[in-house]
Predict the structure.
Amino acid sequence: MKTVSTKKINGSVTQRFGKSLRYAIFMLILITMSLTGFCESNTYADAMLKNIADFKKDSTLEQYQATANSFERIVNIEKEKWLPSYYAAHVYVIMSFFEEDSDKRDLYIDKAQTFIDNCQKIVKNESEVYVMQGFIHQARISVSPMVRGMKYSVKASEALNKAIKINENNPRAYFLLGQNLLHTPSMFGGGTDAACPYLTKAKAKYKIFKPKSSISPNWGEKTTIKLFEYCNKEKK
């Protein structure tokens, strides 16, 4: 009867233990990486949700500036994500409407443009980015309608129609096109008759719209309804 030496048994046990240990370490690394990614993802989403909630509540330039700064901090950390830049641009556009000084308004709009340019570098053919570009052009018009109306109305329409071409179900593109036409004199192709079809379509699109995530763009419906009601009232 053959006997197995203690040395051979110990070697076999050691070999199996070594394999098990290596496997355990490998699994631990995978789990750690997964948890780290999950935590980082949660941290990013939580920070974005907080800023978006603040943005909705803001009512002064100081509050908007604080929110814009918070989004910019996320931009500097999450360099491969476009949404922080998108929201930073959105905040600065809104700030431009609150400011009375024309030069300062342009500075806010310039800031918005910088962030939307960054979006374009990160993501290609994103409908929401073109919507925000159109909104920026509309903000330019509001600073000096008589001087800038013709130039930036065309630019806004081009950007918004590009947004629709990419995603025909994006309600914000129709809303801003309708808003642009509503504030354009009828002699230049605007007015309620021109605006109402776009606002009607925007209203319908909002009813079926579902954002891709909890931090995806989801704004404009309330203003669309108000403009829609105004438009129909004026037509009667």
Remarks:
- Residues 182 and 191 are 5 Å apart (CA to CA).
